[in-house]
Amino acid sequence: VLDEAHHLEERVTEAFSVSVSGEEMAEAARRLDKRRGRGRDAGGDAESIARRVETVFKGDAAALLRNDAETLRTRITAVEAVLTVAFGAAAGRGGGGWGRADTLAMNPPGSAVAEAARGAVTEALSELRAAAAGLSSRLGGWLKDIGEGRGGGEEDDHGLDLLKTHADAFSGFQSKLAVFLENTTTEHVRLLHRNPRDASWRLEVTPVDVSGLAGPFFEEKRAVVLTSATLTPGNSNPFILRRLGLDTSAGDSGTGARPAGGAKLVQLPSPYQLERQAQVYLASDAPEPGTPQHLEALVRLTAEVARTLGGRTLLLMTSNVRLREASARLHQLLQADGIQVFDSATENRAAEAFLASERAVLLGGERYGEGLDIPGKRLTCVILEKIHEGMTRGHLAEARKAREKSPIYDYDFPLRMIWLKQRVGRLIRSPQDEGAIVIFDPRVSRWSPGSRRVVLSALAPMPTRLATTAEALAEIRGRYA
User: What's the number of CA atoms in the CB half-sphere (13 Å) around residue 439?
Assistant: First the structure.
């Protein structure tokens, strides 16, 4: 049984991704040659390892390890330097295909500047890999010699433990660097992440298509239960199952994975009478999202709904900056009405405070869009700032869209509608609940009929219609006040 199964593609992607940072490698080098105080561990890990391997290595093992650690740090600094140049070149081109100011992709071809930067990055990472491989080889060789019985002498468990720990760490580093350097095909996205505040960096290799990776897990199971209200963008088309490569057809035909026995897909309907319990309004006259006018109109709408309902309102935002601005403005507008305002950006237990209050408005960011459970009359209206698009942007999303026949309808819209259904689902949490949802995004009214049908299908069976802000307010007042 897999709960919140609409996130399965993300979880499988994370499981098969490889990541390594300069900070963790530098910390491992510091632990190796850090000098300590008095006692049996005086001198640090390098000296403790040296004492343990003195019967299989007759040289100055501690000095060699310290030199190796310093070489590794030098190579890390060299990577930081070339990344500064690479990110600066990308920023000068406005991204230029390599990415945002904090993330670059190594896969796509770019301009002459990008190609030169890519070569310098590859060379610096190759030298860093060689340094990590040198440490791994030295430590692994000593460990092998001891294991083959040539160690002799008195057993020193502490030194042996340190030897194993550092051997494993640097073996892992060189392996991850190798994965990054060698996965140059379009089957993976290779990303460079950099924090400009401290020049720290991280490498990531992520599979583009995971449909064949989850198969072995599902094929071993007699039955699989995926629980989520949003496995599909509408009432059909099991989007998540397709992304995971699951074959839900009957019989033995088909190329996708299936639980043992090849059972058909069984989809269970919602236990709620959504067509009766909820009404959705698509605000046709809202200003353009992201503008100051949109935020001000959104705040005014929320304040009016809260006054009408005596609180009982949830506003979901896609930006914490705008969330804080909206919260401050609502405090000013609603204080005289005795309506409290709680927001997730400034209060860790905002949802609990909302539940404990008789007259209140709750503002939440992305984490409140899923899992928030407020059944009963405490919540009667959910207002969405807009239909979010962030999950369909970025290097990995672009690589995945490039494989689709119709990127907009096969990838963008399904993910956005699953996101939308999760947030709309905050309203009806029991058979007795009822209320309204206002999606404050005027772009829907300008979309093509086909695109609007996608939205209506995602929200079905809840009745959904285009309405002005005044029309929505009047109906909310008449039905729920």
Answer: 25
What is residue 196's three-state secondary structure? coil
Mutual angle of helices 45-53 and 22-33, in 10-degree steps: 60
Residue 391 makes CB contacts below 8 A (sequence gap 6+) with 397, 415, 416, 419
User: What residue type is 72 in one-letter code?
Assistant: L
Both tokens of 95, joined, read: 């991204």
Q: Are 295 and 325 in contact (CB under 8 A)?
A: yes
Rounded Cα–Cα distance for residues 100 and 96 (Å): 9
Tokens found for residue 171:
């073996």
What is the C-alpha separation between 418 and 416, in angstroms, rounded? 5
CA-atom Rg of the chain in angstroms: 28
Q: Give the residue from 451, 453, 452, 426 showing the smallest Cα distance to 437.
A: 426
Of 286, 464, 299, 476, residue with least CA distance to 386: 286
Q: Give me the pLDDT at residue 156, please.
A: 47
Name 2's bridge partners. 226
* Cα–Cα distance measured from residue 327 to residue 332, given in angstroms and rounded to the nearest whole number: 9
| Cα separation values, 317 from 292, 326, 359, 437, 443, Å | 14, 9, 20, 14, 17
According to DSSP, the residues that pair with 313 across neighbouring strands are 361, 381
Handedness of CA 464, 469, 475, 479 (dihedral sign): positive
DSSP state of 286: P
Instruction: Pull the structure tokens for residue 476.
Output: 């909310």
- C-beta separation of 19 from 176 below 8 A: yes
Block mean pLDDT (10 aa), the chain, length 481: 90 95 96 68 80 90 95 96 84 46 71 68 96 96 80 63 95 97 91 87 95 84 83 72 74 53 70 94 96 98 98 96 97 96 92 94 94 92 95 90 92 93 95 97 93 92 96 96 90
Classify each residue of 368-384 as buried b or exposed e, where b means 16 or more C-beta atoms within 10 Å of its C-beta. Answer: bbbebebeeebbbbbbb
Map tokens 């294991």 to a residue.
Answer: 147
H helices present in 190-273, as ranges = 215-219, 239-243
Write the DSSP symbol of residue 209: -
Q: Among all chains, which residue has been given the structure tokens 């959104």?
A: 298
CB 424 within 8 A of CB 437: yes
